Amino acid sequence: MMKTIFKITTSVLLLSWASGFRSFPKPSPAWGIASDTIFNLGRPATPADINRWDIDVRPDGKGLPKGSGMARKGKTIFAQKCAACHGVTGVEGPNDKLVSTDSSQVKAIGNYWPYATTVFDYIRRAMPFNQPGTLTDEEVYSLTAFLLEANQVIKPGTELNAQTLPAVRMPALKKYILDDRTGGPIIR
Ligand code: HEC
Question: How many angstroms separate the alpha carbon of residue 142 from the centre of ligand 1?
């Protein structure tokens, strides 16, 4: 019985797919044409659309935007937009611990992140968890400064910007080694 139902369902699905497909304009021999011409869906992304997504900041700092920030301002923003999930000082939770200055093995920015620039990248693209993408670049610089200062990675009062942030050396960088294995029998 199940088998029959499955067969019927499958044929119905296939039929509707096939009939739907036939109603699309025939793909021209030039398969290179944009898919929206075939399916009449969406529109080409504009440069403004692409810019909104193209926000990656690399370990060497490439992609960092203009602007700057300091921990003092970051502390206020953190209290308003982050503390509910990470605790007032970044250790109390309930979510990830962000600050670690002791020898505990709980991963946090100070003892685990190899680059300071990617802290900026992560906060800008992913936080606050419930409202990603809402922070201004200045706010992200300030929050990064607050967290790096709390982790005792930068000196109090350090201004972070596109020049100073890539120059910050993270204590955990030395814990990472370049994986230059070539694979195959050499590593077995
Ligand atoms: C609604 C809760 C919530 C809020 C608000 C929030 N976060 Fe988070 N945050 C999380 C969760 C959950 C994770 C873990 C996400 C994951 O692992 O995918 C996280 C992870 C992080 C991490 C990475 C931790 C690590 O070492 O892996 C950073 C940095 C961070 N948050 C910073 C912030 C900052 C800065 C703010 C304020 C602008 C903020 N968060 C606001 C819930 C929150």
Answer: 15
